């Protein structure tokens, strides 16, 4: 076995060892940002699964971002994907609020037939779309404020 | 407004089971170990050792069996604990094999593989028998008594045995065992149960002096008792490592339970005071300090028992390893006495260099991180304390031994978890991981779904 080959083996082994560590960190990472790995429980969107290279590009007029416009998290932007967005104080929510007026699983937003729907998840203090309380799943128009405790969010293009 | 049915709308995203990720990581760990094994052979005599597939296959069968048990009895458990431990245990096997090749007496990879198999059996048994770790809370004082009994066992006349000046072994027939390993875990369970019951008084009573909250004098009881216990271990059994391990873990758990910095301060002061006092009074503790402060001194280097030869050889080995190491199978682990048990870290440092050593320390850190994360996610204080305590125990043990080998702190005879040869420690650590897996399963299991339709009664299944 030549010196060079041994050197290469040595370096390769160290690289593989570190790659293992990085892969482990990757697993933790996807664990922390849960929604990416959460199983989608909405079977209806499965048949119209978009092709690989076109990652669900929203059509004109459909919202692309959820922006927090008021409250302690003001300025936070979440890009909308096919995944539902949960809002609340629970640490596994997409948008984690630290607000005494919010419930741990307060509300969720989910896409349905090209629209985003807001649903209150039985919160204590309620979810408001514009001025009216959300009592059942309601479609959210662009730019309409949703109020949850002290936090105000809206959908934007 | 639509009245479209939304009953099957996506539920709150839950922590996924991550079975796939776990399997991939497990396979990856085994591949890394087999690569290391082959690389040892190539380094020694230029050919892949014939046992590569036997050992690799043996390890793979064991670990996938452990995975099967985990998937069946703790399906929500953390996906990383098992692969990370597999890597450490496998790398340990490889290094023990490598040291065995140099002909150092006492190193036996076959033995270690057998102990690994027993460890996996204990891991599986713990997971299968212990359906709910909170049963342990009921055994708080039993565990305390058991821990104490195990600690003093080596001092008992017939079964106790002295090896290298430390009385930490028991011998029953041909079997030798280090009960202190098991004692540590029993004591952590006891501390967790005890602190859950008493933490309010330890956390709240007391008064403020300058900028620190001091506890009341009469609440110092538990700390003083544990301190006395650890000093007793230090003096009577000459086991500096276990003493530091038990006391440090207790202080850390006290801190987790009460969030009071003053306990840490009191603990550190007590231990430093005790250690200095013991150093003045007892020869073997003093030896350790001398060797630590001045290992190059020929007087210490040539001393028969408790000299600095081992420490210096370890430092030389790591020095010659440098950043990238000498390569597997190309170092001189034979020069280090006991390189397969206490000083395996020095051999890793020589053959894999700083880079490889850091990778292994990262793996330890990740295991501890998963444990602490379990503690964070847990829902009841006992689980929080137990998971936090066990993770800290592991981290603290790695710190004490690696710190000792690299001469950051005085050297103490502790094994490196999962790497070192030694059955008692391997068994205990596998049980420790089983407990962490059990707790992470409970912590990550999704809570019952919140009620959505008013007027429906929800049935909780637990």
From TrEMBL, chain A:
Highest taxon in the source lineage: Bacteria
InterPro entries, alphabetized: Cell_Proc_Reg/RNA_Proc (IPR050923), FHA_dom (IPR000253), SMAD_FHA_dom_sf (IPR008984)
Gene3D superfamilies for the chain: 2.60.200.20
Ranges for region Disordered: 38-68
Keywords noted in UniProt: Phosphoprotein
Domain FHA: 85-134
Name recorded for this polypeptide: FHA domain-containing protein
Source taxonomy: Bacteria, Bacillati, Actinomycetota, Actinomycetes, Streptosporangiales
